[in-house]
Amino acid sequence: MTAPSEDAYSEALRKIRTSKNRLMVCFLTFPVYVYAVGRLVGQGQDITWLMLAYMALYAGFGINMSVRRCPDCHEQFFVKKYFLNPFRRDCAHCGLSLKQQTRG
């Protein structure tokens, strides 16, 4: 099996960082979601569409993050056994840092 090129390696790390950033946006916008739900409930509006949209977005970003593989060890980057740790800054298995740009 041949090692991936430097471009493929950097691209894999970029995709891992992007997937982490997307899930972090969901975490950080949660207060906005709570505020919007409160306003809609206060006005007697249906909140089903908002709840489903937010849950689907969160689930999609979480799944995207959980399936990302480390370019070094080819294991799931953020998942050690069964649980996703979105706050990791390095691979759960080999310790590869997200800040690293190239091999070495």
Report on the structure:
The relative contact order is 0.16. It is elongated and about 55 Å long. It has 104 residues and is an all-alpha fold. It is built from three helices and no strands.
Put the structure in a nutshell.
With 104 residues, the protein is an all-alpha fold. The chain has helices at residues 6-28, 30-42, 48-66.
Write a concise keyword list for the protein shown above.
104 residues; mainly alpha
Q: With helices defined by DSSP (H or I, 4 residues minimum), what is the helix count?
A: 3
Question: What's the Cα radius of gyration?
Answer: 17 Å
Q: What shape does the CA trace take?
A: elongated
Order of helices and strands: HHH
Secondary structural class: mainly alpha
Give the helix level as a range of percent. 40-55%
How many strand elements?
A: 0
Q: Would you tell me the overall average pLDDT?
A: 87
- How much of the polypeptide forms β-strand, as a percent range? under 5%
Largest sheet: none
Pick out the low-confidence regions: none
Distance between the termini: 19 Å
